[in-house]
Every structure is written in C-alpha cells, then in structure tokens.
Design brief:
The chain has 269 residues and is an alpha+beta fold. It has 2 domains: 114 residues, Diaminopimelate Epimerase, Chain A, domain 1 (Roll); 113 residues, Diaminopimelate Epimerase, Chain A, domain 1 (Roll), CATH 3.10.310.10. It has 4 helices and 19 strands.
C-alpha cells in the first residue's frame, strides 16, 4: 500500500502532511516520523503533520519534529494545513484549539492566549519568567513564554552575531527546561519590527517558527519594546503578529504547497 502525502511549507519551514481523514494510513510512530523527515533517505521535512478526525474541531493536527518527538503546536504548519483545508477551520492540537481562516497575504490564525507562569512553561522550579536569572555565555536573562510550545526569548543587539547553532542545543537540553525549550534570539529594529532567529527543539535551526514569532512578539510587547502589532522577520520571511486586548494572539502569514507524492511504508520499516 502506497501512502499519499503533500509537501508544504510556511516561509521555508517545511512539512510532510499525511491526511488520515481521507486515506488509510499505517500507525505513525516516532521512528517512522523520524525516517520520513530524514533529508537524505526520507522525504525530508522539519515536521511531519498528521491530520485526523476530531470530535471538538474541524479536524485534529498532530505534529512530529524531525527527531521523531511529538509537540503541541506549530504556527507555520497551522497555516499550511488551513491552506490545504481551503476554508475557515478550527484545528485541535495538543496545545489547544486554534482558529484559522484565509486572509490577505495568506492565512490568519488565532493562536490563543500566552502563558507566563513558571509551571506553565514549564520550568524545573519557580522563578521570574519575565527575566530568568540564568545565562549561557552572553545570552542571559531570557523571558519564558508558552504559546502551545515552551519558548525562551533573548533580546540581543545583533541576532545574526549569536552562535545559535552551538548555544541552541545547550539551552534546549538544559535541565531547567524539563520538556526542553525553543530558543529565540531577537533584535528590536523599531516599534513595528523585530528580527528573529530560532533554534527549534527537536528540529534545530529553522528558517521560520510561527510559535517562536508569537512568543517573541508577546515578550517584546510585554516589556514595552514594540507596539501591539509587529512584523517579525525570520530567515524565511515575515509574519505579522498582533496581541489584542482580549489577550489572544493573531498571526498572519503565507503558506504554500510544494508537491504531492506517495511512499511505501515498507521502505522505512
């Protein structure tokens, strides 16, 4: 049995999408997700996305990073599957129910409300999450935010100067983050613009991270560094993030389909 897939991306953050609502699929294990995501011997992607039926939303989305680990949310993948769905939808994820709809320039997603409690990130023990009293070399005093995934945000003078490929995995796996963490280095350009680079837990350096853009924008807004709507530019492109008076985060940005194909699960056993 050959299994159909759709290859998609949001700002270069790429996904292999499997649709269990329409197609008969074999069980997706962590090992299979890792094998399919391998860029040399598999299809290749940052995340494997599995769509399933839902009792509480239009459909359910499960997200596997390219190391095989399953995570709660992915903003870029949410825009991609909403594009594939083709109409407004509610999407059940492990991080909560998201709302997506077509919008000018791509897809608009209501990403829900941010969480700032130390036990909501989560951290290993209580501390001030607005300026954590920790440091990794020159990266110090991050703000921690959970937007479906845990994020640590460092505000720096020059985001490109940070050796994120070296420091990212150290911070991701630090015991202070019991569920690991996404590492964001952000440079404030103006009241309306942020430059951002992200080390994504389970995926590494990424061209774009939707939840990272949301977490970073909210952190900058909470600190009074930017306005309540801001353009966040990542290596793959720009997302617009707004944090409304209702405490909900809305992300706007593009998504695209790359190609379609099939694979034989036997090849990845």
């Amino acid at each position: 049995m050959r299994v159909p897939f759709v290859k998609m991306h949001g700002l270069g953050n790429d996904f292999v999408v499997l649709d269990a609502r329409r197609d008969q699929l074999i069980p997706i294990t962590n090992d299979l997700a890792r094998a399919l995501a391998d860029r040399r011997t598999g299809i290749g992607c940052d995340q494997l996305i599995l769509l399933e039926h839902s009792d509480v939303a239009s459909f359910r989305m499960r997200i596997f990073n390219n190391d095989g680990s399953e995570v709660g949310a992915c903003g870029n993948a949410t825009r991609a599957v909403a594009l594939l769905h083709g109409e407004p939808a509610t999407i059940e994820t492990a991080g909560g129910i998201l709302e997506a709809r077509p919008a000018e320039g791509g897809i608009s997603v209501d990403m829900g409300t941010p969480r700032f409690g130390w036990d909501e990130i989560p951290l290993a023990y209580p501390m001030d999450t607005s300026s954590m009293p920790v440091a990794w070399e020159d990266l110090e005093n991050p703000m921690a935010v959970n937007v479906g995934n845990p994020h640590a945000i460092f505000f720096v003078e020059d985001a490109d100067a940070v050796d994120l490929e070296r420091l990212g995995p150290q911070i991701e796996h630090d015991p202070i983050f019991p569920e690991r963490v996404n590492v964001n280095v952000a440079q404030i350009v103006s009241r309306e613009a942020i430059l951002l680079r992200v080390w994504e837990r389970g995926a590494g350096l990424t061209r774009a991270c939707g939840t990272g853009a949301c977490a970073t924008a909210v952190a900058a807004m909470k600190k009074g560094l930017v306005d309540r709507e801001v353009a966040v530019t990542l290596p793959g492109g720009t997302l617009t993030i707004a944090w409304g008076p209702d405490n909900r985060i809305v992300m706007n940005g593009p998504a695209a389909e790359s190609f379609r194909g099939t694979f034989d699960p036997v090849d990845f056993a």
